Design the sequence.
């Protein structure tokens, strides 16, 4: 049963990622914490491992075919993302579990409010 749960988490995360360009972590991290009983640190690390592989390649191809990928911008963002991910991982490594979980939740709430209310 756990394998089926993991596949469903990935499927739902992939659907949201492909539909909204969110990377899937906003869906998959809470799912792993609350459905699979992983710690916040374990869930975030596991999802980073998932996203490290070019899992979005087919979705990117579809967006590219529609003329909706700016390759030059994506490459510059990727360069910053590589270093930003390392900085972020080092920063949260020593944080207590409760602090990390709350920070993640607040981030999701604030982004949701901004997306829902602002033009």
Sequence:
């Amino acid at each position: 049963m756990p394998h089926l749960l993991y596949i469903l988490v990935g499927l739902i995360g992939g659907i949201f990622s492909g539909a909204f360009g969110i990377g899937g972590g906003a869906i998959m991290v809470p799912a792993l914490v609350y459905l699979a009983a992983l710690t916040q640190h374990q869930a975030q690390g596991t999802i980073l491992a998932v996203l490290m592989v070019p899992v979005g390649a087919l979705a990117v191809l579809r967006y590219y075919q529609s003329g909706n990928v700016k390759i030059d911008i994506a490459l510059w963002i990727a360069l910053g993302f590589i270093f930003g991910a390392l900085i972020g991982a080092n920063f949260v490594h020593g944080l207590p579990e409760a602090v990390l979980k709350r920070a993640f939740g607040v981030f999701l709430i604030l982004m949701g409010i901004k997306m829902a209310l602002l033009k």
